Amino acid sequence: MSQNPQWLALLHINENNISEISDSNFYISKQSNPKIELETLLQEKSCENICKYPARYKFLSDNLDLNISFSHCEDLQTFLKDSRGETASLVFASSFLGSPTSYFGHTFIKINKPKNIYFSQTLSYAAEMPQNVGFTNLLVKGIGGGFTGKYVASPYFKLIEGYNIVEQRTLYEYELDLTKDEIETMLWHSYEMLNTNIPYKFFTENCAYEIFWLLDVARPHGHLREKLKAYVIPYETIETVKKENMVKNFTIREPLIEKLYTIYNSLNSEEKEFFTTWKESETKEKDLNNTQFSQQSKNKLSELINGHYDILFKKFRTSKADFYDVKKIPFQRTIIDKNDDFEPKKSHKLSFGTIKKDNENGQILNFRPVLFDRFEERDNKLSEATLEFLNIGATKFDNNTKLENFDIVKMESLNKRFDFYTPTSWRFYAGANRSFETDNLEAVLEFGMGLTKGNEFISMYGMGQVAFYPFITSANFQALGGVSFWLDKLHLNFDYKETFKDGMKPKDEQKLSLFYPINKSFSLKLSNELKQKEQLISLEYRF
Hints:
Elements: H1 5-10, H2 34-43, H3 47-52, H4 54-64, H5 74-83, E1 87-93, E2 106-112, E3 121-128, H6 135-144, E4 147-155, H7 156-166, E5 171-176, H8 180-193, E6 198-200, H9 207-218, H10 237-243, E7 247-253, H11 256-265, H12 269-278, H13 284-289, H14 295-316, H15 323-327, E8 349-357, E9 360-368, E10 383-397, E11 400-415, E12 425-434, E13 441-454, E14 458-469, E15 474-487, E16 490-501, E17 505-517, E18 522-529, E19 534-542
Antiparallel strand pairs: 1-2, 1-5, 2-3, 3-4, 4-6, 5-7, 8-9, 8-19, 9-10, 10-11, 11-12, 12-13, 13-14, 14-15, 15-16, 16-17, 17-18, 18-19
């Protein structure tokens, strides 16, 4: 029985027969040996132990007909009463560039209460991060397991507020094909895990990986966790449950700001002008009733102002002075159908193609463990973002092979503005690029800030940027701008950069690029450096 797959999953013992939990309080025997732990539980069936390790005792009771009672475990019974639901869903919260720990997105379990979805219990795993930890320290400790992680249970409305309203992240919900008994087993194990300390690792033992332990406890013969890669990217785990045919239903909860953006764009110019002044009024209900707008338009305006104050209060913690007055304005919600499934991209990308530079033909090869690229994908209508690590590119002309770029990190966040939503667009880059002027590989740090405007299909950005060259102790100022146009999956982009240096003499660069995904693995990319007379055609392969 000590080698039963469910027993091993309850103790988080992996396929190498090693427990991944070093917290001695996790074991009643203080040892991670599955046989010793089982024997110790059988010998020490005190009320205290039964309530502290209920999932393990329930396993023994079910398999050995021990008839162990858990009715005296008040905290356990309260947790189960608050948590039980009809079905369970695997939920993926999209990436958020505001926090390094959220770059990859977040995966958690939701136990669905059909009659009160907002109070459905969620089960997740998260790192306990110091508030003022530096980026380098965060990266080193995050990769090496220097932070502690814990399982957390909280009502769904709190995650909606945090992810959907404050951080403006999309929530993709995949209802799983789990029985009520399997869900119950998962809940008992979750209760047992709530106070356990586990090392958190960004790329391996992270939120998605630990959540799969819960699924393995519920359905031990599925061995889902073993089907994950050596590195675990949260958005890629969606494919794992899909391949196992565990997904019964799919729903999407778009960010509140994106829904408001859709409603705002459906208003005519007169209604938009009214809203701009009305949102600051102290007699909102009276002003709205005095307009000649249709009831449908009044509903949209009321929903828009409600969402506006939700963001003001929950994101910026502004005063509630007129918050309740806004909530009293009646309206019928706008129905917006959005059922596009999340399509996780494969993590790594290799691109190869031909390059023409100064009328000389050559070849180009590029490798990057890409996460997402604003030229290739959009998370929502309001933003385009890039996150790359360790991007390496090389060219070959005749027999001369050169390293063209070595990008340590590249981050870009271009968020569109409209009326009351005015985010700052920004970018950060650290790496080395070959200079067009000197043909030397130059290390550079860049940081820029600006703004982005546009609609569902087109966006225009502009920003100022400082570029610092540490090895030659030089710096200059750059003005950046660009236009981005999306037509379904086809993306056309024009970028402009003007560099002020050597006594503020400007030098400009212009780049036109086109990107088209052929399928999930292959994409075609064309670019033209207009000033430097460089053309590139490449085929990109994701794996």
